[in-house]
Amino acid sequence: MNNVLDKIDEMLTCATLQGATRSQLENHHEMYKRSMQYLAGNEHKIAFIGNVGAGKTTSVCHLLGLVDKEVPVLSTGSGRTTLCEVHIKKAPEDKIEVLPYTDEEVRDYLYDFSLYLKSNDEDGEQEGFKLSAEIERALRNMLDLKVIRTKVNGKRSAIDHAKIYAEQFTNANELCNEFIQRVNLTSRTQTEFINLDGQEKMTWLRETFKLINSATHKNVGLAKKITLFIPELNVNDETFSITFIDTKGVDQTVNRVDLDQCLTNDKTVSVFCSRFNDAPDQTCSKMVDSAIQAGLKPRLNEESILLVLDRAGEAEDVMDYDEAVGNKEDGRDIKADQVSGELSQKYAVRNFGIEFFDAKQDKPEELLGLLVNKVRTLRIKHEQHLIDINQSVYQIESEIKSQSTSLAMNQVKLTLESWLKKSQACSPTLSEFFIPLIDRISSKGTYAASVRASVNRNGDWHNLDYYQELAVAARRQCVSKIHPLRDELTILIDNMLSQEELKPAYSLLKQLKNTTEIRLDEISQLALAKGRSVYESKVKADSTLWNNMYKEWGQGSGYKGRIAEHSHHWFKVNDYSRFEFDITRVLVEHWERYILEIEKLIGSGLK
């Protein structure tokens, strides 16, 4: 493939090369290398995203054949059983690796648990201050302080040994210090497990995973990520490898760093999982909306699907006019039309991939093949880029030798001049992008527990991440300014690609389209990164802010409102406009650089 790059380098040495032609070749050189690098990396991901209790973990197990005597290998139940994100990949031997939380992170969790145990719930808000069920269960197992439930004479009772133990201590700090000693993190250092005893593979995987996930293994810390390496994984394409990811169930918000990375990583296929009767549920709808707000709408159909997880009888019970259809396939078709119509109406997303899977009844081969083919299609797209660039380079060489000026090229230039003038007047400025963070803190949908947990960690908490909220808000504002122009350009280019008389300019038009997709994605991601970095270190380091907010807990009703006020005040007194100007300046520079690149590619003389 390097012969194409060599050919471009040779052509660029020509002293008489026209400006637009030189720009096209330089752009081809960069884009060719970009696609080569994409294809050189053969690691891809398929990420399953859904609500807590949606059934995605059970579906992942059945899809990949991770079943031991009809029992899923991954701990499943009625929700909130999977402790953390789980990665599954093909490997030569059965193995499990654990990435544990740091000692500091475990201490934060233990302190949260201590606060909960020592609270008296006088103001009514303490009830909300509680760890997620899966984290609390793991901590109780590490501490060996469980809730024992009994039933005597038909009456149920529970003895909370953690509550009883906590009564020995006067405050949460003392209790937390004792908990840290009790969990004995220095002995919990094992991060790798191999089936050395030759136990039946699926049984070993299930039993070992259960010990890690429940934190009942004495040598393992609190798991932040668990990776399963499995030789028998039913993925046979040898040109690339796939890691399947069972993401942590969504609770309260989809605005999480891990989920955003699933959407923006062009080597990841995202599978939005929803129960049949709820499809598309709120989480799936919000994920689609998040992708659009991130400027990823053109990539949605290529890089994601909506997976409806139905159970026995649900599809058959779908009503058609005045009675149930009584047929699974017909019921699924009707449901697919309803889901498709809702996505089209709400988000103008059309032809979105909608698939169905009943973990207990459906054979997994068809769905698994479809998902693997989605990954293969991503790679084919870059292979086609290489072919297109190769053809374009030789077309350019032919035009240079004949010294011909294409009428089609001039028509492209004339068609895009109006768009260029409009684009030059555009400026991706940012304004008060901290406001969505303030709104999120005080929102009815945000638990006081999440606000308290975030305050306790200087704003760094997955269900209320100050810096992710700022980053996404900055990107959203940037996208709202520049992507209408992208959409307009796409329409112009697609229209010209349909005109036979402009066929000599097809290569250039494809080049403009590909360049626009890449550059605007770069600008959007730059806004995301800058929106976080411009504030993160300064906000985290402001001990006065966090100490003042820390004291607000337990001061009566209105806790979230007080935290919102403190946070809003911080941005006001720290001259937020100065930070916004710094980001805007960088974004404008990149936007102007992109417009100039388009001008050079078409040979425009606009200034």
Descriptive report:
- It is a single chain.
- With 607 residues, the protein is of the alpha/beta class.
- It has 21 helices and 15 strands.
- The longest helix has 38 residues.
- The chain is globular and about 95 Å long.
Question: In terms of topology, how is this protein built?
Answer:
Elements: H1 2-12, H2 19-40, E1 43-50, H3 56-64, E2 67-68, E3 71-72, E4 85-90, E5 95-100, H4 103-118, H5 133-143, E6 147-152, E7 155-160, H6 161-166, H7 172-183, E8 192-194, H8 201-213, E9 223-230, E10 241-246, H9 257-264, E11 268-275, H10 282-293, H11 297-303, E12 304-309, E13 319-320, E14 323-324, H12 328-347, E15 354-357, H13 365-402, H14 407-424, H15 435-442, H16 448-456, H17 466-497, H18 506-541, H19 543-550, H20 559-573, H21 576-602
Parallel strand pairs: 1-10, 1-11, 4-9, 11-12, 12-15
Antiparallel strand pairs: 2-3, 4-10, 5-8, 5-9, 6-7, 13-14
